[in-house]
Design a protein that fits this description.
This protein is mostly beta strands and about 525 residues long. It has 3 helices and 43 strands. The longest helix is centred in the first third of the chain and has 10 residues.
Length: about 525
């Protein structure tokens, strides 16, 4: 078996096996670095840390099928700045914010700011271009529990000549003032954040999760906020206990998230794992996410940002990842007024999430909110209650339950009407479904464009183990249990080689579906 080198850093490297296996291999394999064993396991994406800069290494992969080798040279590093030399204590009690920030501000181009083993109690840190932040084994960046110690990022500021706007803060798709995140980068480029250390928001010991929807001072921060950045790579870092969305790339391009572990308690509010918003060219590989909301939510803001600062989210690759718990495994929306296109999710495990593929939008997102060319393939879903949901009546925002959003009669098509184009799922196994397999509800005035599901093998839990649930979060929609396929207001529905076992029904329920193509659909 062969492998490819995905990314080379100054002190680490990430490789990916060239295999169609989902997330991991059936058998253990070994990775050696210049003859020394550095990894033994099964995961398809592997990051090797603890290397030296400007050094040539030989990687060797040994599997039951044979061996392969490839050489590489680590990137250049100009200087290594140990934060303890700047006065950081790493004792988990003393505030180390000023010392770490001093190291960051002093770091020259191609330099590394180094956090050795220790617990660094800190408020928001601001990274800059052309640097590496390295959290070594046993290093924990621990969030300050006092919100008054965090600076605020104003949502929108008028330019001096009042001809343009300058956006800093963001909250749920709007340019609103929020607290700066534990790791913040604004207008940075060529930035690396490498592990294997931990970024811990420490929200469980603060008041971030108390009255979470109430603004106090400013809106809650993320654990990591990347605003208008480019060429950012985050590798083998654990991020946990975030005050709100965990990783929030915002209006940023060319991003890689490799072999990360993102974890928040299951009852923590709005703690999405990774939410790229108005971003282009995002790669997520070998990452495990287990959180209290959507594991990943692909977004592009609400109407104001789309109107004034339009940027769609596009070219998203998610591969060889595992998504556990959470409301959705990979979600598109609902704050997607700028549009989302060209999303590819493959070779992933969805384990125990409420929904697998989850698309959500609503009236008011606007005509630029075009969600199109979204493909999920080669996925294993285990215990996912509702594997496929598409909802154009999502009841979010203060007006989410209003007649304008929820009325199921046709409304005029205007500049506020969103669009869902093509959604595809193929080569997917769903074991232990509960409520439904596919539930899709489009707008009567603008139906969902095209839904294609092929090579789907779905099995329900036994009836006594199922709990009725509402697959799509909209008003006046009944709970379901053991329902196979429900589609309403869809232009074209294609089902090919789809097997469903254990459902309470024996055929799809279709309402206002204009065109169907069923081949090999069996119950």
């Amino acid at each position: 078996m062969k492998f490819r080198i995905v990314e080379i850093f100054n002190r680490s490297v990430t490789i990916e096996l060239e295999s169609e296996a989902i997330f991991q291999q059936a058998d253990e394999f070994v990775v050696k670095l210049s003859g020394r064993e550095v990894y033994r396991g099964r995961q398809n994406v592997v990051s090797i840390t603890g290397l030296l800069p400007d050094t040539e290494y030989v990687l060797r992969l040994e599997t039951a099928d044979g061996a392969s080798e490839e050489s590489f040279t680590t990137e250049h590093e100009s200087v290594l700045l140990d934060v303890k030399a700047f006065g950081a204590k790493g004792d988990g009690v003393t505030s180390d914010t000023a010392a770490i920030q001093a190291a960051i501000c002093s770091c020259p181009a191609d330099g590394t700011v180094y956090l050795p083993k220790g617990v660094y109690y800190s408020t928001a840190l601001f990274l800059k271009s052309n640097m590496t932040l390295w959290l070594d084994e046993g290093a924990v960046l621990l969030g300050d529990t006092d919100r008054n110690h965090y600076p605020m990022l104003p949502g929108m500021i008028m330019s001096t000549d009042e001809k343009s706007e300058y956006n800093l803060g963001s909250w749920e798709g709007n340019p609103l003032t929020n607290y700066a995140s534990l790791i913040t980068a604004i207008d940075a480029e060529n930035l690396d954040i490498i592990g294997p250390g931990t970024i811990d928001g420490n929200a469980q010991n603060s008041d971030w999760w108390v009255n979470a929807k109430v603004k106090r001072g400013a809106w809650r921060p993320n654990a990591m906020f990347l605003s208008r950045c480019s060429n950012v790579r985050v590798q083998k870092v654990t991020v946990q206990n975030s005050p709100c969305w965990t990783l929030h790339p915002y209006y940023s391009d060319n991003l890689s998230f490799l072999n990360m572990y993102i974890h928040n308690p299951s009852d923590s509010p709005n703690t999405d794992g990774l939410d790229p918003e108005s971003c282009k060219n995002v790669l997520v590989l070998g990452t495990i996410i287990s959180v209290g909301d959507d594991c990943m939510a692909i977004k592009s803001g609400k109407y104001y940002m789309s109107l004034k600062h339009h940027k769609p989210t596009e070219n998203i690759i998610i591969r060889n990842c595992k998504f556990e718990r959470g409301h959705g495994s990979v979600t598109v929306g609902s704050e997607a007024a700028g549009g989302v296109k060209n999303v590819r999710v493959s070779q992933c495990i969805f384990d125990g999430t409420d929904r697998g593929l989850r698309i959500k939008t609503r009236r008011g997102r606007g005509e630029r909110s075009v969600l199109d060319d979204i493909v999920f393939e080669n996925i294993d879903m285990n215990g996912v209650h509702m594997p496929f949901t598409v909802n154009m009546f999502y009841f979010c925002d203060p007006d989410g339950h209003s007649d304008y959003v929820q009325n199921q009669n046709p409304a005029p098509v205007d500049e506020m009407t969103p669009v869902i184009g093509s959604i595809t799922g193929r080569n997917i196994v769903c074991k232990g479904a509960s409520a439904s397999i596919l539930c899709a509800v489009g707008l009567p005035e603008r139906p969902i464009g095209k839904l294609v599901f092929e090579n789907i093998d779905a099995t329900f839990l036994p009836e006594e183990e199922r709990v009725p649930e509402r697959p799509v979060m909209m008003d006046n929609f009944d709970e379901m249990s053991g329902r196979s396929i429900y589609a309403k207001n869809v232009k074209e529905l294609v089902l090919k080689n789809m097997k469903i076992a254990g459902s309470v029904d024996s055929e799809p329920e279709l309402i206002n579906v204009e065109k169907t193509e069923f081949e090999g659909l069996s119950y």
